Structures are given as structure tokens and as C-alpha cells.
Amino acid sequence: MTDVTRMTAAQVAGLISSGDASAVEVATAHLDRIAAVDERVHAFLHVDRDGALAAARAVDEKRAQGEELGPLAGVPVAVKDVIATRGIPTTAASKILEGWKPPYDATVVERLRAAGTVMLGKTNMDEFAMGSSTEYSAYGPTNNPWDLGRIPGGSGGGSAASLAAYEAPLAIGTDTGGSIRQPGAVTGTVGAKPTYGGTSRYGLIAFSSSLDTPGPCARNVEDAALLHSVIAGHDVRDSTSIPQPVPDVVAAARLGATGDLTGVKLGLVKEFAGEGAEPGVLAAFRESVEALVKLGAEVVEVSCPHFEYALPAYYLIAPSEASSNLARFDGVRYGLRVGDDGNRSLEEVMSLTRDAGFGPEVKRRIILGTYALSSGYYDAYYGQAQKVRTLITRDFTTAFESVDVLISPTTPFVAFPFGSRTSDPYQMYLADLYTIPTNLYGGPAISVPCGLSEGLPVGFQVMAPTMADDRMYRVAAALESAVGTLTPPTLEA
Amino acid sequence: MTTTALPTYEDAIAHYEPVIGLETHVELGTNTKMFCGCPTEFGAEPNTQVCPVCLGLPGALPVANRAAIEATIRIGLALNCDIAPWCRMARKNYFYPDMPKNFQTSQYDEPLCVDGYVDVQIDGETFRVEIERVHLEEDTGKSLHVGGATGRIHGATESLVDYNRAGIPLVEIVTKPVPGLGARAPEVAKAYVTELRDIIRSLDVSDVRMEQGSMRCDVNTSLNRPGDEWGTRTETKNVNSLRSVERAVRSEIIRQAGLLTGGTRIFQETRHFQETTGDTRPGRSKETATDYRYFPEPDLVPIAPDTAWVAELKAALPELPSVKRARLAEEWGISALDMQSVANAGAIELIEETIAAGTSAAGARKWWMGELARRANESGVELAAVGVTPAQVAQLQGLVDEGKLNDKLARQVLEGVVAGEGDPAAVIEARGLGVVSDTGALTAAVDEAIAANPDIAAKIRDGKVAAAGALVGAVMKTTRGQADAKTVRELILARLS
Amino acid sequence: MAAISREEVAHLARLSRLAVTEQELDQFAGQLDVILQSVARIGDVAADDIPPTSHSVPLTNIYRDDVVTPCLTQEEALSGAPDSAEGRFRVPRILDEED
Predict the structure, then answer these.
(1) What is the pLDDT of residue B4?
(2) Which chain C residues are within 8 Å of A210, Cβ to Cβ?
(3) Do C96 and B286 touch (CB under 8 A)?
(4) Nearest to B59 among A203, A350, A373 (CB)
(5) How far is B154 from chain C (nearest CA, A)?
(6) Mind listing the pLDDT tens digit for each residue in A20-40?
(7) Is the pLDDT assigned to residue B365 strictly greater than 70?
(8) N or C: which end of chain B has fewer CB within 10 A?
(9) Please, which residues have CB within 8 angstroms of residue B146's CB and are 6 or more apart in sequence?
(10) Catalytic: A95?
(11) Predicted local confidence at residue A180, as pLDDT
(12) Cα A332 from chain centroid?
């Protein structure tokens, strides 16, 4: 039998439904692959071997009894450790939650289980999803399978790397400022941020509530769409969940895969196609634009004048919300407690706990957010950032009056070496320059591989109007049909 | 600190003008909490009415309870407020262990209801208390303080937290500052809270029990010399009964006047009312100027009440207490002023229930506004807590009406009921207090009295019926009060006609 | 001029319940200054008459019915607690000694 770990999720599902492979065989192959390579990749913080095999057995039993299987039944999936999984450690890659086992499942996880997917384990990330390299994981970084000395992107570097290392065919990420798309770009995989409100945040440990969006990660566009359709849709437990049907993203991906983009108008974001990006990234991007034109798409340059303020707005809004969201980690109800010697007051114990339990980037952002929300600074910082958010949204809506989607590189640089951007936090923030506007607007965006620069993957971003997630899948699948998927190094010892 | 001699209340009022303000929290009686489906019943085992949402577990999200939004709007409407067409919840950020998320989901500069008023009457005079805002928020958990004296937070070595109460919907009603009340300030404060309680009770959205904490009141008080600007206010917490509202304002006026007269300035501070002594003590001094870093709650979408829905809720409001009082005054045949006394005594429903149990309006009112009001006042409790139920009063009055008790005996029976000896019938039985209705025994006593007072008997025979009173008195004396005077009189007249 | 002082950072850390070390203070003060200087240009955007966006979804009035749903058991509720007693979460004394 061919190696199931190299197959697409759709192929794996096909094997299982046809009976050519059992779900247990598929799960075992992936668990073995993890056992073989994860020491070097470190994509996983926790591997749930028993749980995965039990879920796989359940799928096999259902099939044996002649029950109908869903389109992803038996397909393994890795889940970012920021998402609550009942009885399975969920740490958000933070020391402050070390060993915490949630008494409940996130909605996304419930839906994965209901669809018969097989959860392999929890993937590494920057602590509380704050970062672009996984270097801020409290449990050590994830290494990029393309070059183990380089970052896999972040915050969802573990999910992206697990795909590139063939440890899982599918993974769940969360995207607050680019945490699904930028890791996708630098690992040569596909990462999609759905419309905010299109996927439920219930059970997603909040970083920035008004921006956080769970979404699919895969090695190709159709797989991403399949996963998207399993996890998306209205959830009554999330007040910001949109009570509308999910666009048919799978059909859109299949339509795009035919390679015909006749009549589709692409808006090239002028502000993101010039300076700021590495030349190799821009070159790969431009070649891809030409490829899309050959498929029949019309490309026009579009100006989004306020996008240049997206990064500052984001670094005020996200830390502000984070400072409030992370207040609950105080060593009272769950997680770490430090310094409770019977003498110290609660405030002292809380403060020691939080200082010991949070890493430097989390602390910086908590302090920054506390500052931006302070009464004397609120209007100048948080308030102003929310107004800029309105202007960025207007840039998008104006652009979408004349084009179907917007396009740009996903991130200005390819995977960078460890340690090269940690000393100056702002240099790290620049990795999200092109992904952040979408989060502020709330629309969907996808990163799809579009070539290599210096032997490292480059990502192509497609941004669509809110609740038009199908459009981005169509364009991304068309590009994929033209440039092909990327094949990372094998990692064989 | 030196102790300044306190002025009398009259002295304080002679020199200073008080300004009061009230912040009242009302726990709504919804089935479930504000943002999750946990039940709200009082007295459950600790941490058994909690879920990921109200425990603030990572990843959990709130969804607002429609019934709580509706109840808040109804309260706003009953308080003559405007209902905001669009508003948001906000996060109030501060660390405290009884708050699971270390922020309270509340409302900040966009309350659901604004600009209302409540009119209260005292001695026929109407005072308008303006409402600044009515907003919705979530309650906190409860801490048990261990290791210190009498369970207080001071001196405790540790605390144990129960989150059953965390997340129960809480409505906060804030008045505008009320100046110009003079000596009436404490009474107006009490009358306002009473009226507020009655209004909310009539809406059936909370059991509004101050003693159980489902209604909590903070009282702001400041003093200024006539013509001067308003003074610095203090906020008094722990005001747990209607009576305490009045006492707290009064004692704070006296305390502040003493300080001001002695040349000490008033600090803006939180004070705690002491039920036993009736005065206020300083609360925690620390970090009074906390920056709560409010911002719109991103996990909840805006509240935009449909105007048609609001109109529907308004049309469906029940009869409000002021309207009801006017109606009852007419039904009971009493003046508006008398009705106000009944209301101020908290006796409306008690009297209503007593009437419903079969007593005349006059009879019911006589007991609740007379003997029982006196007893409540003496022992410093609310009328409703005096220890007698409307049904018992009705029974008592029924016995009087049937001639089985006279007024004097009835008061003794009441004493037994208050003392917990059971219903009136049981008290009569136990104490042997029934009127002598055995006509044989009474006739003997009447005959005895006639024989002992031949002069009077002669006058009565001559038609001077008024003289019968002396014989009645004699009979009552020999029966030690246990006879019905009316019956005795009839017997005497029958004998001598 | 520095956008934020070391003292301000110390105050914010206290407000945030972070017992930062002196070394962290030095480091954060410098880094936060760089970040704040970089984000401060947001003030250049003329936005006086622009309404703020707090939510990107145009939803209002999302409510649930007032119906009881299952709770956690006491054991589940306390399962993650660093310390508990008598069915409750145990915390050190709330007040400082000088209170």
C-alpha cells in the first residue's frame, strides 16, 4: 500500500470509505510518523495516541455496520493547543496552563468529532497565539520541516509544520493577525482564515476576541475547503457567530481547480506589492499573478490607503483585548500557582504566578494593552485604533465594489532563522503586515503556496468579502492548479 | 484620631444641606444566569451551579439571557426611563477572586435605560427622585473568610470562594444627586428605596429582599453650607434593610456635620453601615481610584431593542404601586395621606392579604397600622417580619367580629401569636383567653351586679339606658375581662326592661 | 522623548498583577517604548468623525432563552484548582497585612 501519510485528506477519506484502508491503519501510520520525526520538528505538545486509535476504531465500526460516513471520516487532524479539548491537556503553549485538562470541548472540536475525524493531538504555537515564529512557546519552538534551523511561522507553527512534516493531513489553526496564513506561507502549506463569525470561537482560548478566528490548515486547497465545511457554521454558544449558511467552499475549490478564472476580477493591493517585502517573495508573487491572468482572471491595481495603519491599530486592539482576556489566569480556579507559602497575600501570589507563568511576549502585550485602555490614553490609542478599524473596513468594502477578491503576498519574508527577530519585538510584528487588515475587517483570507524563494516557500494571499469565503477558495485552487503544491524535504533520517 | 462630639440631627440640618444619591442593585429572578444556562437558586451546595462560562474557564463565551434584557427594560419603563435604541455591554477590569474572569461584564457609558424618575410622597408632599441610569451587569461569587474573627475579611488567613452566585443578572439603578431635601433626606431615601422595591416587585422580576441580598443599596451622602457648592460625598455600603437606608443617611449627616463643624474635611470614601450601632465605619481605604479600563465587550453583540417590542412591554406593564395605591385608597375609603402612611409602613400588601382572608378594610388596617406597627417599630423590624401573618390577623379580627374576643383579649392573643405560640385559636386555647360566652355564667354575673347596684338598676328600669355602662363595668370586673361587653349590655337591658 | 517611562511600566505591571523583576522592567520599558513610538502614528489618521468599530460582525440582539442547561459537577468545577477546600476554591488571604 502507498504511504497514507503522503496522501491528501480527500484521498485518505476515499480509502477508508471504500474499505481499502481502515481508519485505525491510517491513524497508526500518522502516529508512527509523529513518533519518527516529531523529535526533530516538535510540532506537537501532546499526542493522544489512545484517543486517536479509539476514534479510528469507532469509524471502522460504523463502516462495518454499514452506517454512512462523512466526507472526512477517519481522517487524522491535529489541533492547535489554544483550542479546548475535553480531558486532553490544553495549554495554549503557556506554563500558566501546564497540565490543565478542560472539562469541555470547543465547538470546533465537537464538530471534528461528530464528523468522525481522528484527533492526533495538540500542536505547538506561540504562547496564547502571540507571535509569528513559535519561538514564544513555553515548551520550545517548532522547527520548519523545510529547514529545521528556521521558524515555521506563528502563532500556529505547530499545525503548519505537522502538515509539512506529513504528521497529519489536516490541522486546525486560529488566526488573529495571520496565525494560520503566515505559518502556511512559510511552510508551503494552505491556511485559511474564515470570515470572522463563520467559525465558532467557543472553546478557543481568547487572545483578541474581536479578531480570533479558527480555521483549516491543509496541504492543498480542496482539503482545506473540506475541513472548513466541517468546522464552520452557526453556533448558538458564540454570540458573534453569524446565523447564516456557510458558502459552499468545497464546490468553489473544485471549480477553481478546473483552472478557469474567466470573468474573475482580482484587485492587487498596491500598498502590499512594493517595498517592504523580500525581492524573492515579490518575484514569486508576480509570477503567480501572471499565472492567474493566463487562467482568464482580470487583475487591476487597487489602493487601500489605510492599510498602512493596520499594524499599529492591531497592536493596540489585540493587546488591549488580551490584557482583559488573560486576566483570568490568576492561579485561583485552574493552572499554575506560585509563591503560596501561607504568608503572602492573594495579590502577591497572583502577581508571582502571572510573572512566572507568562512568557515575555505575553507580558509585553498585557502591559501594552493595559496602557492603551487606561483612562488617560483610551481615546488616543484604543479609541483611535477602533476608528482606524472602521476606515480599513471601508477600504475593503470600497475595493470589493470593483473587484471580486484582493491579492497580495501573505507575508513579506520567507521563513527566517531562529532568534533573528526576537530581540526587537516590532521586527517580529512586521511578519503580519499583510495579513492583519483582513482580521480588522473580519473577512476571509487564504494563503496558498505560490513558489519558492531561496529554496523556501512563498505564500500568496487571497482576501474576499465577508461571507464570500467561497471566492477565495476558487482563486486559491486555480492558482494551485497552475503552480502545483510544494513538496517539502522528506526528513527521513 | 480625636473624637469630635456629634451634633444632634436637628443641629446638623440647621447648618448644612444634605445631597443624597442612591445606587441600588437588584438581583433578577431569572431561571438562569446572565450569560449561561446555570440555575440561580439560592442555597445550593458550593460550586454546583457553575459551568465553563460562569467559572470563566479559558475559551468559554457568554450569550445574553433574553429574559434579563427584557426585565431590565421593564424596570426602566416602570421608572419612566428612555430605553436606549442601541447600547453595548462593557468589560470592567479589576482583579478580585470572586470575579471568575477578573473583569465584570457590565455597562459603562451606554446604559440600557436612562433619564427616569420616581415620585415619593411623605405627609402628602411629593418628592421627585430622578433616575440617571438603569443598567445590567453580572453578580460576583461569594467568599468565605477563614481564620479571622467572625468570618470577616480583615484578619482572615485565607478565603474560600463559591461561584454559584457569579453571573446572576444584576440590575443597577442609579439616581441623580437629590438636593434640597433638608431634614427630609433620610425619609426620602427610605421612601425611594421602598417605592423602588414595590415597583420592581409589582413587575415580578425579582424577589427584592434586602435581607437576603437580592436588593442591595449603596447610599451617597454629602453636606454643604447653604449657598455653597455640594460637598464631597461618601458612599455607604452594607445597608441591608429599608430602615437602615434611613438610619444610614441620618447618621452620615450627623457624622459629616460633626467633622465639618470641627474643621475637618470629608474624604471621598466607602463606608460600611453598622446594623447594631446604626452608624457608619470606614471601609477598605486601598486603591479607591482604580482605573477600570472599561471597553466594549467584544464577546457580546450590541443590544438594540426593537421599538415595537419596547412599546409592547410598556403596554403590558402591570398596575404600578402609585396607581394601585390610589385605587385601594378609594376601595378602602381612606384619604391619600392615610394611604401613604399605609404604604410607608410597608402595610399595603399585608392589609390586602388580610382583607382577602375575609376581614373588613377597616379591621385589617386597624391591626397593621396600630398594634402591629407599634410592635414592629419597638423591635426595629419591618412590618412584614413582625411575626404575624395576614391570615392570622384575619382570624383574630374574625373572632372579634364574632364576639369571641374583645379588643383587650385580642391584643393578648396577638402577643401569643407574635411569641410563636401558634394561630389565634391555639393561643386562646392554650392561654384560656376566650370571652365568657356561657350565657348561664354571664347571667349569674349580671344578676349579681343588679343585686349589688339597686340604684343603677332602678335608673335603667326608668329608661335611663346610658346608666347600663356602670353595670357592664361591674360584670367585666367579675369576669376578669373575659366577657364580650356588647353581650353583657344586652343581657342587662333584657333583664331590666 | 520616551513614550513610556520605567515608572509607568512598573505601575502598569502592578495593575496587571505581574510581579516583574527589575531586569524585566528595564527590558520591557525599552521595548514598549519602541512599540509605542511605532504605533503612535495611528494618531496621524484624521478620524474625528469616524465611528469606532468594536465588532466586525453586523449583528445585534443575540440572546438565548432563559432555560436551565446542565452544570459541571463540583468535582469537575474544582478539578483544575491549585487548591480547594469544603467544595470551594481556596485562596490566600485577600487583604495585605497593612489593610
Answers:
(1) 58
(2) 54-56
(3) yes
(4) A203
(5) 7
(6) 999 999 999 999 999 999 999
(7) yes
(8) N
(9) B156, B157, B158, B159, B160
(10) no
(11) 98
(12) 30
Q: Which domains does chain C have, with CATH numbers?
A: 1-44 (1.10.20)
Residue A281 phi/psi, 5° resolution? -65, -45
The rounded distance, in Å, linking the Cα atoms of B454 and B460 is: 10
Which residues of chain A are modeled with pLDDT < 50? none
Residue B226: CA atoms inside 13 Å, Cβ hemisphere, count? Answer: 6
Amino acid B234 reads T
Give me the catalytic one of A17, A22, A80, A95.
A80
**A301-335 in b/e burial notation, b at 16+ Cβ within 10 A?**
ebebebbbbbbbbbbbbbbbbbbbbbbbbbbbbbb
Residue of A nearest to C46 (CA): A388
Helix axes B185-203, B242-261, angle to 10 degrees: 150
Per the structure, how many domains does chain A have? Answer: 1
Give the sheet arrangement for strand B295-296, strand by strand. B103-106, B90-93, B295-296
* Residue B207: Cβ within 10 Å count: 15
Query: Looking at residue A91, which CATH number applies to its domain?
Result: 3.90.1300.10
> Does C82 contact chain A (CB < 8 Å)?
yes
Strands B64-65 and A456-463: unpaired
Which range of residues forms the domain containing residue B480? 439-496
Name the pairing type of β-strands C88-92 and B158-162.
antiparallel
What sign does the dihedral A128-A132-A136-A139 (CA atoms) show?
positive
A32: Cβ contacts below 8 Å, ≥ 6 apart? none
Q: Does the pLDDT of residue B287 top 50, yes or no?
A: no
Nearest alpha carbon to residue A130 among A425, A353, A331: A425
For chain C, what is the HEC assignment? CCCCCHHHHHHHHHHCCCCCCHHHHHHHHHHHHHHHHHHHHHHHCCCCCCCCCCCCCCCCCCEECCCCCCCCCHHHHHCCCCCEECCEEEEECCCCCCC
Question: B392 and B257: one domain?
Answer: no
Confidence (pLDDT) at B1:
44
Chains that touch C (3 or more CB pairs under 8 A): A, B
C-alpha cell at B279: 452608624
Distance CA B421, CA B378 (A): 20
Alpha helix stretches (DSSP H) within B130-175: none
pLDDT tens for B120-137 read 988 888 999 999 999 999
Are B288 and B402 members of one domain?
no
Question: pTM of this prediction?
Answer: 0.89
* Residue whose C-alpha cell reads 502598569 in the numeric block: C12
Is the same domain home to B288 and B414?
no
Residue A80 a catalytic site member:
yes
